[in-house]
């Protein structure tokens, strides 16, 4: 930068400071008057807020003094960062001045002729004037010709002020349901102002003085909303926002940025990084309330949607679990893929039937509840055994149990697995209640081709059909209690070293002679 340009920028900086000095001195002077009036009127409860206004006014005047001396933020750098820091430093005490003044006015709303109100309005007017002057600083870093606003001038529509006028005498019904809000700001007065205003609105508030502190609080607790400052020493707001949106546990928490930076660029960066909204300091309390309530309501709807989706997911898992208890996994997968008609022919499948010997007399002697309890206990054992031996249970028919191996996926060892299942079923009955009513079963197994498919719409059933099924049923009905009877076809399909005893050739109607063996 040339010496001429350097001198020009220093002159502009001095001109800016001079325009800021008048309203800043007025704020400090009227604050001192208010302290005296409050003391004379015995209004002790507002003294702490007046002291905060005074501290902020002194901070503001000190900064302007340093700007006049040329030791403040270096406007001549020509960088957006320098301009942003200057406006942030000026807006921070202004935020406290406006916020605490408005809170005192709100608390004094029941006394319309209150002596303090006139001076408080003077302070708010001076602060509004300062904000207009601060906004004009934006042109300095871009080297534009700057015409500082004269007192009372307004270069553009003040949307916040217009909204304040529109809602000044109107009572607005806001949602009563508060939220849990985390306020993150490195300036104590900002945190205090926001916290007090939010608590008055019924919200629960937790504060953090830095980004790292906020992350620690987020790790310990859950929040419905985060109000986040941009310019902070250890981790700026955009860095923290990026961190929040990259963590799955925090992604769903809405974030409203509250900053002294009003540039479109700053707003755009925050929205791109995942912010839900953006408010500039000093904030309009009506606008702040509306934005917070709107964001919280949106969060509640998203939370409801998330809960509904979780319920749908849970119900779907439950439905899948139920249907998988009825149908083989492969058939369920084909149904979910949209297959409407499921029917297959298998050339070699082993079918097992097991039936209780003398069931009718036993059923006549037992009570209904005892009979059902014992049948349930037996069939539960059989179901577990089919899973262990990787055999498909087909169905129960009264006191009979039907299973198949080699469907819905072909298996080279289907005969061995289903014979092993039959042996396990017989052993499991030995542990059941002894006595004349003890369950004893006959088991018949045959191997051959079948057709398997899904039938029904209200109640799905995966079933098998064919002569192989009929022969297996006949082998069971003409079998021996507590013994497995298999056919010649099953014997030929066996691969393991089973002990077999040839029994006889059974003459089956419509089929002819079938050689049979007992598995010992």
Automatic annotation (TrEMBL):
**Class of the enzyme per the UniProt entry, highest EC level:** transferase
Per the UniProt entry, the Enzyme Commission number(s) are: 2.7.13.3
Residues with the modification 4-aspartylphosphate, per the entry, are: 229
UniProt catalytic activity: ATP + protein L-histidine = ADP + protein N-phospho-L-histidine
Q: Which domain of life is it from?
A: Bacteria
Q: What is this protein called?
A: histidine kinase
Q: Which InterPro entries match?
A: A/G_cyclase (IPR001054), CheY-like_superfamily (IPR011006), Cyclic_nucleotide_synthase (IPR050401), HisK_dim/P_dom (IPR003661), HisK_dim/P_sf (IPR036097), Nucleotide_cyclase (IPR029787), Sig_transdc_resp-reg_receiver (IPR001789)
Looking at the keywords, is Glycosyltransferase present?
no
Name one molecular function that GO assigns to this entry. ATP binding
Query: Which Pfam families does the annotation name?
Result: Guanylate_cyc, HisKA, Response_reg
One GO location term (cellular component): membrane
Keywords for this protein: ATP-binding, Kinase, Lyase, Membrane, Nucleotide-binding, Phosphoprotein, Transferase, Transmembrane, Transmembrane helix, Two-component regulatory system
Enumerate the spans annotated as Response regulatory domain: 180-296
Protein localization: Membrane
Q: Does Nucleotide-binding appear among the keywords?
A: yes
Q: Guanylate cyclase domain: from which residue to which, for each copy?
A: 350-476
Q: Which GO terms describe its biological process?
A: cyclic nucleotide biosynthetic process
The secretion signal range is none
């Amino acid at each position: 930068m040339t010496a001429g340009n350097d001198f020009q920028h220093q002159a502009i900086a001095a001109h800016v400071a001079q325009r800021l000095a008048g309203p800043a001195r007025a704020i400090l002077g009227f604050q001192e008057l208010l302290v005296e009036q409050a003391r004379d009127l015995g209004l002790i409860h507002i003294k702490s807020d007046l002291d905060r206004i005074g501290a902020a006014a002194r901070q503001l005047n000190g900064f302007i003094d340093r700007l006049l001396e040329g030791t403040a933020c270096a406007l001549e750098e020509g960088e957006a960062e320098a301009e942003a820091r200057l406006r942030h430093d000026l807006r921070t005490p202004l935020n406290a001045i406006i916020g605490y003044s408005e809170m005192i006015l709100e608390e004094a709303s029941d006394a319309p002729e209150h002596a303090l109100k006139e001076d408080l309005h003077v302070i708010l007017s001076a602060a509004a004037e300062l904000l207009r002057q601060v906004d004009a600083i934006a042109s300095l870093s871009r080297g534009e010709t700057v015409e500082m606003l004269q007192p009372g001038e307004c270069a553009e529509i003040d949307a916040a002020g217009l909204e304040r006028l529109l809602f000044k005498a109107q009572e607005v019904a806001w949602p009563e349901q508060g939220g849990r809000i985390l306020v993150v700001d490195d300036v104590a007065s900002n945190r205090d102002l926001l916290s007090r205003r939010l608590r008055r609105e019924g919200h629960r508030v937790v504060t953090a003085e830095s980004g790292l502190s906020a992350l620690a609080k987020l790790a310990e607790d859950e929040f419905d909303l985060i109000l986040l400052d941009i310019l902070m020493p250890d981790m700026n707001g955009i860095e923290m926002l990026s961190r929040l949106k990259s963590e799955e546990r925090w992604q769903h928490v809405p974030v409203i940025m509250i900053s002294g930076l009003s540039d479109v660029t700053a707003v755009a960066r925050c929205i791109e990084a995942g912010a839900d909204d953006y408010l500039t300091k000093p904030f309009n309390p009506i606008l702040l309330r509306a934005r917070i309530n709107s964001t919280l309501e949106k969060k509640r709807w998203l939370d409801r949607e998330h809960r509904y989706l979780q319920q749908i997911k849970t119900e779907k898992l439950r439905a899948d679990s139920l249907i998988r208890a009825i149908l083989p996994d492969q058939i369920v997968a084909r149904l979910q893929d949209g297959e409407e008609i499921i029917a297959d022919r298998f050339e070699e499948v082993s079918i097992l039937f097991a039936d209780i010997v003398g069931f009718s007399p036993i059923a006549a002697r037992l009570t209904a509840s005892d009979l059902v309890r014992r049948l349930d206990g037996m069939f539960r054992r059989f179901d577990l055994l089919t899973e262990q031996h990787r055999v498909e249970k087909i169905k129960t028919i009264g006191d009979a149990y039907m299973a198949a191996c080699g469907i819905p996926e072909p298996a080279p060892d289907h005969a061995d697995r289903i014979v092993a299942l039959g042996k396990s079923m017989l052993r499991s009955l030995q542990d059941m209640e002894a006595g004349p009513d003890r369950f004893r079963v006959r088991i018949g197994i045959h191997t051959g081709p079948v057709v398997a498919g899904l039938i029904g719409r209200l109640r799905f059933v995966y079933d098998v059909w064919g002569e192989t099924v009929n022969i297996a049923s006949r082998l069971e009905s003409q079998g021996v209690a507590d013994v497995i009877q298999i056919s010649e076809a099953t014997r030929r399909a066996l691969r393991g070293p089973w002990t077999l005893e040839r029994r006889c050739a059974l003459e089956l109607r419509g089929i002819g002679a079938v050689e049979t063996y007992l598995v010992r």
